[in-house]
UniProtKB/TrEMBL annotation:
<feature type="domain" description="ATP-grasp">
    <location>
        <begin position="107"/>
        <end position="307"/>
    </location>
</feature>
<keyword id="KW-0436">Ligase</keyword>
<dbReference type="InterPro" id="IPR020562">
    <property type="entry name" value="PRibGlycinamide_synth_N"/>
</dbReference>
<dbReference type="GO" id="GO:0006189">
    <property type="term" value="P:'de novo' IMP biosynthetic process"/>
</dbReference>
<dbReference type="Pfam" id="PF02844">
    <property type="entry name" value="GARS_N"/>
</dbReference>
<dbReference type="GO" id="GO:0009113">
    <property type="term" value="P:purine nucleobase biosynthetic process"/>
</dbReference>
<protein>
    <recommendedName>
        <fullName>Phosphoribosylamine--glycine ligase</fullName>
        <ecNumber>6.3.4.13</ecNumber>
    </recommendedName>
</protein>
<dbReference type="InterPro" id="IPR020559">
    <property type="entry name" value="PRibGlycinamide_synth_CS"/>
</dbReference>
<dbReference type="InterPro" id="IPR020561">
    <property type="entry name" value="PRibGlycinamid_synth_ATP-grasp"/>
</dbReference>
<dbReference type="InterPro" id="IPR013815">
    <property type="entry name" value="ATP_grasp_subdomain_1"/>
</dbReference>
<dbReference type="GO" id="GO:0046872">
    <property type="term" value="F:metal ion binding"/>
</dbReference>
<comment type="similarity">
    <text>Belongs to the GARS family.</text>
</comment>
<dbReference type="Pfam" id="PF02843">
    <property type="entry name" value="GARS_C"/>
</dbReference>
<keyword id="KW-0067">ATP-binding</keyword>
<dbReference type="GO" id="GO:0005524">
    <property type="term" value="F:ATP binding"/>
</dbReference>
<dbReference type="InterPro" id="IPR000115">
    <property type="entry name" value="PRibGlycinamide_synth"/>
</dbReference>
<dbReference type="InterPro" id="IPR016185">
    <property type="entry name" value="PreATP-grasp_dom_sf"/>
</dbReference>
């Protein structure tokens, strides 16, 4: 089959790479892609958030399946246009994508479905925000209600800082969701959905803060690893029973069945599993680690989900290896990244055994050099027999790559390697 992948980032590069390894997929295209994706498959420079442009390209290519990567095209209704034209699409409709596009909507769905999550208040002005902050106390959790590419959340013990973030959201015309703070380690679980049925992928953990020791501002993610050996037994089964399936049933009941990836951002608290947030697509950078371990051909699974036939799909098979990916970001990210620097060492990194480099914010200049064109620029994936080996492999790849101002964390998956992640005894 022919597959068209929509999106420009590292997540899309990982999806393209997995689809290219699928023996049933004869052709992969990507729009708009990036410099690394363009080395692997044909790319098309269109506006990925324009439903008409995506539909026209899918028709021109006679695509058998379209996979929508990022959240913005989903919120713009790209899937709706494809569905209306009868083209199988892996990615929820605009209405179903509200699970990510509006945190207030997601909270409403979770309440109706009795999904365990943090208590929350929606605030539309300073007075409501101040009252909610005082209700919950520190640490304060303030989330922009709309799409913010993973950077719309502030967690702080400083009440003034929390209120300042809320006011910035109000000034931009938005609302905020203020939540109780959830203790315990965080887990990302991607669940492939076809509206009724669901199949979980391997859990992963990502690292949101820009600096080591989880310091500095939030980013879209600075690295990830999978699997998570420290998770409680039957963790995935419990998430499916208490979170994924109740959410799917509620969405179907509302007339907006969810097809695509339900990304469950979870906290493993002393009171049990709690949903931090839902996303309506594969997470970046967790996808780079998770798909590096998937042995089952990806195309067939995604097509089955798009056609509502997931219960007939092949059972997922995973490599016993561990995957770690480390993001290398541009100078001054997550503020205004410095762009244009020429990247060196990519070939040397890719030549290392069990290393592959996923491109995100890259493009090619007039001379054909790969240059920095975004905030998170690359994700270096390393595979190994255990976490220590996978970390060493990933960081050996990172060491080969350089440009002026490049920055990356040195502690991705380090606590897990040292056995320092503590899961509190569960009391439901």
């Amino acid at each position: 089959m022919k597959v068209l992948v929509i999106g420009p980032g590292g997540r899309e590069h990982a999806i393209v790479r997995a689809l290219s390894a699928d023996p049933y997929v004869k052709e992969v295209h990507c729009a708009p892609g990036n410099a690394g994706i363009a080395q692997d498959v044909t790319t098309h420079n269109i506006d990925a958030q324009d439903p008409a442009a995506v539909l026209a390209l899918a028709r021109e290519l006679a695509s058998d399946l379209v996979v929508v990567g990022p959240e913005a095209p989903l919120a713009a209704g790209v899937s709706d246009a494809l569905i209306e034209a009868g083209i199988p699409v892996f990615g929820p409709t605009k209405a179903a994508a509200q699970l990510e596009a509006s945190k207030a909507f997601a909270k409403n769905v979770m309440a109706a479905a009795e999904v365990p999550t943090a208590m929350a208040h929606v605030a539309t002005n300073r007075e409501e925000a101040a009252s909610a902050l005082d209700d919950f106390g520190a640490p304060y959790v303030v989330k922009d209600d709309g799409l913010a590419a993973g950077k719309g959340v502030v967690v702080t013990s400083d009440r003034d800082e929390a209120l300042e973030h809320a006011e910035a959201c109000f000034a931009a015309g938005g609302t905020v969701v203020i939540e109780e703070f959830l203790d315990g380690p965080e887990v990302s679980l991607f669940v492939i959905c076809d509206g009724k049925h669901a199949v979980p992928l391997s859990p992963a953990q990502d690292f949101k803060r820009i600096f080591d020791n989880d310091e500095g501002p939030n980013t879209g993610g600075m690295g990830a690893y999978s699997p998570l050996e420290w998770l409680p037994e039957n963790f995935v089964d419990e998430v499916m029973d208490r979170v994924a399936y109740p959410t799917l049933r509620e969405m179907e009941k509302r007339g907006t069945p969810f097809t695509g990836v339900l990304y469950c951002g979870l906290a493993v608290t002393k009171r049990g599993i709690r949903v931090i947030e839902f996303n309506a697509r594969f997470g970046d950078p967790e996808t780079q680690a998770v798909l590096a371990r998937l042995k089952t051909p990806l195309g067939g699974v995604l097509l089955a989900a798009a056609k509502g036939q997931l219960d007939d799909a092949e059972q997922l098979n995973w490599s016993p290896l561990t995957a770690v990916d480390v993001v290398i970001a541009a100078e001054n990210y997550p503020d205004t990244p410095v762009k244009g620097a020429v990247i060196s060492g990519l070939d040397a990194a890719n030549a290392l055994e069990n290393v592959h480099v996923m491109h995100a914010g890259t493009s090619a200049d007039a001379e054909g050099n790969i240059i920095v064109s975004g905030g998170r620029v690359l994700a270096v994936v390393g595979l190994g027999d255990d976490l220590a080996a996978a970390r060493a492999t990933a960081y050996a790849g990172v060491a080969q790559i350089s440009w002026d101002g490049a920055q990356s964390r040195t502690d991705i998956a380090l606590k897990a390697e040292r056995g320092e992640i503590v899961v509190a005894k569960q009391s439901k």
